[in-house]
Amino acid sequence: MIKFRLAHLGLALAALGFTAATPVVGLSTAYAAEAVRPEIGGPLQAAQKMMQAGRAKDALNELRKLDGKNPTASEQYLIERVRAAAASTAGDYDTAARSFEKLIDSGKLSASERANFSEGLIGIYMRAKEFGKANAAIQRSLKERDDPKLRAYLIQNYMAMGNTAEATRLLEADLRSYDKSGRTPPEEPLQMMANLQNKSGDKAGYVATIEKLAAHYPKASYWADLLNRIVSKPGFADRLRVDVSRLQLANNLLKKPSEYMELAQLVLRDGAAAEAVKIVDKGYKAGILGVGADAPRHQRLKDLADKTLADFNKNLATTEATLQKVADNDGLVSLGYAMVQAGQAEKGLALMEKAIAADHLKHPDDAKLRLGQAYAAAGQKAKAITALKSVGGKDGTAELARYWIMAINHPMA
Predict the structure, then answer these.
(1) Residues whose CB falls within 8 Å of the CB of residue 234, separated by 6 or more in sequence, listed in order
(2) 3-state secondary structure (DSSP) of residue 302
(3) Distance separating alpha carbons of residues 378 and 346, to the nearest angstrom
(4) 82 with 102: CB under 8 angstroms?
(5) Which residue(s) pair with 6 in the sheet?
(6) Are 128 and 160 contacting, i.e. CB atoms less than 8 angstroms apart?
(7) Where does the signal sequence lie (predicted)?
(8) What are the pLDDT digits (tens) for 261-277?
């Protein structure tokens, strides 16, 4: 009899080639010292050396020499350990599945190894599109332990089967549990839910899920999707495009010179010269403006913004007195916003608050939205959120206010 040392089986699933839609299990290196007969130990050791040399198929062929050798239970366990690793690496999933099944039923695995091999078996079934077997294996594992990862595999399996109704039901139940507990749901189930909603044509549900993704996991793709959809939404007010562009700027979504120039021109039109200067400066620092054939145009816009800001500061007292005299509250809101952007936050915010309280505004919710943006620009996060929460409207203002809150709470990196 010889002592056989089993090692380097961490490769067991390394070559399965699983995608994000199927489970991947990192099996730790396993060691076992078992007494085996020479006629068993020889091929086992040879197979293991072949595995270490990257010759998984040769290892499988070597293990076939043991067929009909009537191994003991301990010997069979060692054979299946090596065969599981070799078959997984070689992409022979039928053989790998049989070995995994035998190992799970052997009674020789520790609790942690049994859980790992069970997950590996699930992955093999899903890879082979054995959906029924995968479901059964997942359900067995769920009876042993309530693991969110296993529930995710089950949902993925139903999605792969095309059973979107059951996948949606399970996802909704999981996401409700997060909502009830006040915990942040993981990104992956939210992504799966968005995918299902998009495929089923549930536009409202899809947008709500993308909002959660953008709020908790701010990424350019989520924000771009949200902002593109709000502009195309029926009833969206064209005057709010400037606010959409402001959000795009805040989330680093502006990438073209024309986008920077358009936004700078819009805020200049609205009297916020200091904001225009900041936009142009950001474009220059990003290397988007000031380069290429249109560099002279960019410079002219920069000069215009600088001159307009100088004129604004020079005429500020006269402009405010004129607006106060005629009680132009819309104008005072715009002036207060411009003052905040120009560094006069205390006076500008007070002017905005007073004008909004006086009412007689053409678009009250626009004014509240602008106030929230002004508080954010002044670095007063809590007051910004309070102001934004007061915004209503069905023409896009309410959604934009909600998105500003998301951007303030979870800014893009």
Answers:
(1) none
(2) helix
(3) 9
(4) no
(5) 32
(6) no
(7) 1-20
(8) 999 999 999 999 999 99
Give yes or no for a contact between 81 and 113, defined as CB atoms under 8 angstroms apart.
no
Exposure of 158 by Cβ count < 10 A (0-12 exposed, 13-18 middle, 19+ buried)?
buried
What is the gyration radius of the CA atoms in the chain, in angstroms? 32
Cross-strand partners of 34: 4
Burial of 361 (0-12, 13-18, 19+ CB in 10 A): middle
When pLDDT is averaged across residues 282-286 and rounded to a whole number, the result is 97
Token pair, residue 353, equals 């608050």
Please name the residues in contact with 105: beta carbons below 8 A apart, sequence gap of 6 or more.
none
pLDDT tens digits, one per residue of 10-32 = 333 433 333 333 332 333 334 34
Express each pLDDT in 380-408 by its tens digit. 999 999 999 999 999 999 999 999 999 99
Model pTM score: 0.74
238-243 LR contacts (CB < 8 Å, sep 24+) = 239/363, 239/366, 240/366, 240/395, 240/396, 240/397, 240/400, 241/266, 242/266, 242/267, 242/270, 243/369, 243/373, 243/400
DSSP letter at 145 equals -
pLDDT at residue 7, rounded to an integer: 38
